[in-house]
Amino acid sequence: MTNWQPSRFQTEDRYHMANEILCELKNKYGEDLIAAAIEGSTAKGTDCPESDLELRVVVNGRASGWYPFFYKGMFVGISFSSLDKIHVKSTNIDYEWCVKGDVLFSSKILHDPTNLYDTLREKAKAAEEQADFDGLIRDALADLYEHVYKIYTIHESDVVTGAHEARQIAYWATMCVGLKNRHKFRSSRSMYHESFQLESLPHDFEQSIKRILSLNTDVQRLKSDVGDLWVSTNKWAALNGITLEESDLSFL
């Protein structure tokens, strides 16, 4: 058994390395470097010694994409964005808004001479005000059911697939709850505990999520717990005017 552990850094180390990388970006791209910001746990102040460093870099003339690497022992991910792409991204409200919707607002800006982030944040706020959250909840509910029924197709000895589907079920049920309460989770790591404190919840939501995420190796018990969560979540959604039932096909 290996004794390996990830490298540990302080928050100050991450900011220091971010500024070192920024200097290299300025040297390479000059005026084509439009903006650079820290995202993720470091920006939110929730980072741990083992956390990575996430950067968003907007550059004229460079294709968008994610580039991961180690820098002086620290794991770093740079998300390069074109100006057009980041403008589109700022107005894109999807059914994972609860874990993605605060990125622009929580970012710590390193370089932004044209005040791009002010513009992006204004556009994001306007998009949120106009978003169809009931439609987003319906989409998340559909994804939830996609994983719910799969639990019932697996063999009782297949605990690996059961554990995988259980995580997906807990995730999408929590997305439904977050969307209904218009709540942005601080991170995917804290989302479950945060969701238990929200106002509008399906019956027995906290206990259902905890049972499903306990990774019980009894697949038959897992199926029962998943069924209970689906029934309560579906009823809760219906009480809020959201349903997947379309028997009259009026949407066609």
UniProtKB/TrEMBL annotation:
One of its GO terms (biological process) is response to antibiotic. GO terms for molecular function: nucleotidyltransferase activity. Residues 115-243 form the Kanamycin nucleotidyltransferase C-terminal domain. Pfam families: KNTase_C. InterPro entries: KNTase_C (IPR012481), NT_sf (IPR043519). This is Kanamycin nucleotidyltransferase C-terminal domain-containing protein. It comes from Fictibacillus phosphorivorans.
